[in-house]
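Our example pasted here:


***
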Amino acid sequence: MRILGVDPGLRRTGFGVIDVQGAKLSYVASGTIVVPTDVTLPLRLKVILDNLRQIVEDTKPDVAALEIVFMNTNPASTLLLGQARGAALCALADRDLAVHEYTALQIKKSVVGAGRAAKEQVQMMVQRLLRLDGIPAPDSADALACAICHAHIAPLTEKLSQMNYQTRTSRGRSRVRAGRLLG
């Protein structure tokens, strides 16, 4: 499975692509989309949209993982970040990718083991987990961490989903059999 992780931002949007085979994680690509600040908001969002579309075309991921944005102390900043995130979601949806969303706490806990980890800790663990020669840039590291989080969580989510389906199916059969016995 190839996973594209995205760390959306209106000034800098990080992306990271990894391959997953069983428990083995392999680095494919990463980088930062630097959005010009001297153009209008619609053009800034278009930069994110166009670049992510191209990254999807170039790397051909199977799924995408994106960080969920929460309200911070500045509502205007949160709104702008949400718009950058919306541009990223549109680019991924436009390429028919399934998008999985994770909170910053989930991502940090999955990668570092602590939900309140510092950015430097995330960068160091991403470097170790992907066996990189150097420490990735902060935005790239966050995007790679998002992809790693999905790689860790997806197998468990799939198993729980299968178990839930089997439980519902077996309950349905029991009711049918009981109904036939009583009827």
Summary: Confidence is low (pLDDT under 50) at residues 174-183. Residues 177 and 183 are 10 Å apart (CA to CA). Residues 138-182 form the longest helix (45 residues).
